[in-house]
Design brief:
Blueprint (H helix, E strand, L loop, with lengths): L1 H27 L1 H12 L1 H28 L6 H29 L1
């Protein structure tokens, strides 16, 4: 899970650069924004957005796990393994839930 936390952190950095590029396109005018929207709305763009949202949620769940450890709890082997499994299940479940809600409200 430590490696996954680092990978999602890197993914968040790259995704934030893409969001900044999208904002620059929005500020640059309708033509640039239309191009950015076409890219973001493509299959590949939506896949990147999905992975970015997974990275954000997984990184948050990992941060909450570390917060519990900072309080001095959950250091025994069984609890650590259960927390790692919960982090993965929660991040996948919350990502899918967020996307279902987003698509329904769209």
């Amino acid at each position: 899970m430590s490696v996954a936390h680092r990978v999602t952190g890197t993914g968040l950095y790259i995704g934030t650069v893409l969001i900044a590029a999208w904002l620059v396109a929005a500020a640059s005018g309708p033509a640039a924004f239309d191009t950015a929207q076409a890219i973001a709305g493509s299959f590949l763009g939506r896949l990147v957005l999905f992975l970015y949202s997974f990275s954000l949620i997984h990184h948050m769940c990992g941060g909450l796990r570390h917060f519990v450890w900072d309080m001095g709890k959950g250091y025994d082997s069984e609890t650590r393994m259960n927390m790692a499994k919960f982090t993965l299940v929660a991040s996948v479940s919350l990502t899918v839930l967020v996307w279902i809600v987003a698509l329904v409200l769209r």
